[in-house]
Batch of 3 targets.
Target 1
Amino acid sequence: MIRFSKVNKWYGDYHALADVTEQVGKGEVVVVCGPSGSGKSTLIRTVNRLEEIQGGQIFLEGKDVHDKSVDINRFRTQVGFVFQQFNLFPHMSALDNVCLAPVKVTGKSKAAAREKGMQLLDRVGLAHKAEAYPQQLSGGQQQRVAIARALAMEPPVMLFDEPTSALDPEMVGEVLNVMRSLARDGMTMMCVTHEMNFAREVSNRVWFMDQGRLVETGKPDAFFTNPQSERAKRFLSDLRSH
Ligand code: ADP
Ligand code: MG
């Protein structure tokens, strides 16, 4: 579904991604982990071209996403992306946030978009909040609306960049539960997260990054019980001591 081939990225002189070569299969759930600054956000942001790359290629369903002929704005709306900050439009209801892209970008009728939007809000447990504005919702609820909004474009993959890191602890579970149910339904997902229980229970594979490199990948059980690299061993032991 997603294939990284010798991907290289620089921020000026800084080599932020170095020769990343890996693939995410259809229906696979990959958790990307690694120390702060290792390139996790940069990597997933390259998939929907929030970041350009200077070397290599990235294919999504066989299409080169960094090809010059790709219409970036349209393309971006078609790859689901959920950030740490919920960034809903504050002046629009939950339902209007969810319906916006299908109406504006794909020209769906308002009625059809609202019907689908209600189904999606129901799926994330928020049908009863359809008319609420973001500031009337908790952080966990806003993040679930953000997931519904991303799903409204029927993306082939969903990318998550620390979707629970800005939440109060009691709200983390409700967002992870929505992600877990998406995984169960076969969604292809790349998730940057520090939620190692989620990684263990839900992911098919863990990718460990350090200094812009994909240092190792493995099934979660193997990665957590028997990491191969010294760097991953240190990372996991630091996590456990917190
Ligand atoms: P992570 O998500 O793993 O914490 P990032 O992908 O955000 O790491 O960042 C990787 C490295 O690239 C860091 O050293 C960061 O400072 C640097 N970096 C990220 N974004 C930019 C930018 N827009 N300009 C310059 N350097 C950046
Ligand atoms: Mg990051």
Note: The first strand starts at residue 2 and ends at 11.
Target 2
Amino acid sequence: MYFKKILSKTFAGACVMCLLTCFISCATPAAFGVLCDGNEWMDTQGNPINAHGGGVLYHQGKYYWYGEYKSDFTTAAMVGITCYASKHLRQWENCGVVLPVVDSIGADIERGCVMERPKVIYNEKTQQFVMWFHLELKGQGYNAARTAVAVSDSPKGPFRYVRSMRVNPDVLPVDMSDKQWGEMMQLRPNDYKKWWTKKWRTAVEKGLYLKRDLSTGQMSRDMTLFKDDDGKAYHIYSSEENLTLHIAELTADYTAHTGKYVRVAPGGQNEAPTIFKRNGTYWMITSGCTGWDPNAARMFSAPTIWGPWTQHDNPCVGEKSEITFGAQGTFVLPVKGRKDAYLFMADIWRPKCPSDSRYLWLPISFTSEGVPVLSPSTTELN
Ligand code: DGJ
């Protein structure tokens, strides 16, 4: 204190103080602390952040968080996709609804449809922000199983809706051998009407539903996007009746699929895929399929995006690890400028009052072998 007082009395002292402060803040980056541990999270105007099933894009010094606007009494999309912006991940400014639902009857994104898990990536070549999300058509429950794309010239929108689709019609996965193709082509759906039998499981693994949907395109529900270091981007989604994940390459402008894709964990029932890359290894954390109820997370790794993908133990440890601490993952955000800082973003769903669903953002820690770990005691990001 005394030292401070004397120094601040002189101009030189003020300069020294300035340098000292700068030195301290440059040498030790400020800790982020707890970002969100399931308590209500307010935006800069004091309103609860409404951006569920979301993902975050870092662009020119700012983070942009895109998510589903959830209403009070329905999980259907009554408003659209929202965006919040932040410099340091803690305070989020509401940028509004960047892709609103529309009121034209029969439109893909008609009010009352389902718009889930939006993710946005930036395309350097076209200088466009490209959003993909899971779309279910109004009044059809979850049967449409489509994905949709929208584009914008600015991270703050507005996004222009482009189209929706099933994925890669008439195309086989690149990891299917001729022998496997032959076996799949012999499967007849009528022989497997009863689900969950051993016989049915084997048929699912061999591509029972892949074959069924070949001509119409593959189903696409829970999803995320991943942009690799070389600028290539991938769409990762729950397909084949939510039983098998697909990883599909996007075209150079990120608005369509190239036709190159692989199946991951056939018959494994994975939803809520999240993916990140660390020291050359691709990590994927997913959930099981229990609707809005939480379940145990699963984890996979691969040396390339195309696999082979190996399953690991549940990455969660500690109390409630068997239900991912009550949450379900939606995105893994690599924190800009920090080595080894990855945030696992998850939603704590409250389907009875969807707007009151919460967020759990957990920094990922790593074992000495480099295996990701999620722990409720590590909610602080340093
Ligand atoms: C779980 C998914 O992860 C959510 O995004 C949502 O589609 C619910 N299922 C619907 O039950």
Note: Residues 11-27 form the longest helix (17 residues).
Target 3
Amino acid sequence: MARALDLAGRGWGRVQPNPLVGAIVLADGEIIAEGYHAEFGGPHAEAAALSAAGHRARGATLVVTLEPCAHQGKQPPCVDQVIAAGVRRVVAAIRDPNPVAAGGAERLRAAGIDVEFGVLAREASALNAPFLHRARGEVRPFVALKLATSVDARIADRDRRSRWISGPEARDYVHWLRAGFDAIGVGGATARHDDPSLTVRGPLTPRIAPRRVVFAPALNLRLEAELIRSAREVPTTVVAGADAFQWEMGRALAAAGVELVPAESLEEALTALAERGVGSLLVEGGGRLAGALLRAELVDRLHWVQSPLWLGERGVPAFSGLPSLPLASVERWHPVERRALGDDTLLVLDRTCSPD
Ligand code: AOF
Ligand code: ZN
């Protein structure tokens, strides 16, 4: 299953809003074929692995990160292919919560195939957290925060300089990470001070370039900002209070090709983004937006890159405005990944823990 999860990850940036799925075919304990879902609308992981196995799939075990689908969608039902291939046993990490596709296990069992769930279920759930979030019927996008900080959790020095806290490996990681999200968000102050482009500039080209979203309640932006100047090439949304769009800046932004989304709160903003097709949002700062999202319990995942330097008390804090609750009542988040990125350290934390 660990191998199947690795394979599933290769679809990152290419398959959303569909799930990342990997599969292997095992015979006599050996991997005889592998497959993964490589492209939205393309062959499912099970079909890819089974066609690679050919006649050797007869009597074999199919290990897959998600329950095989039972529906005719853009692809034929995987259960039919599993049955036709003569597979004897299916080991799946998690059930498919998508009501349209669900029911695969029952169909397989009715055909006399052994079906087992629960192997590396937590890892499989973490891998497809945005897909599972939407399948639960959530009305807002899956929200992840990405922050590069010093050891003392500062995102910029006392003059707001942040280039570069993290090293090149961590910056490559961010470009890879962006490719898997529908939208990349920043606060207005960050858009003004850092003038980021928030585009994907790594080896992985996303199937659809993520939309850029600036949360700027008071519309305190510069028309010369990179995000605004390039709004006709890469879709850009500015979220602000409805009143703000009446101002001259609102009209100028619209004329520059920026999509304006009125919202009076972060909740409203996220719901409006979901209605416009944003299923997952990666927020890259700054500290005020990060703090406000956390305070409102609107963050599902944190990608924290910690670099080996200190910026001191006058450095810009990664999260501002968080309440100081008594230790006994604070919630603990759940690590889903820890690894080195050059000299930096990546820690990925989820707010809620998926069940085993
Ligand atoms: C995938 N890839 O490898 C598997 C999926 O419209 P379709 O035919 O591509 O079906 C999409 C649904 O099929 C998806 O939401 C999930 O429930 C199920 N399984 N989907 O895109 C795969 N195994
Ligand atoms: Zn399928």
Note: The chain has two domains: 2-134, 138-350.
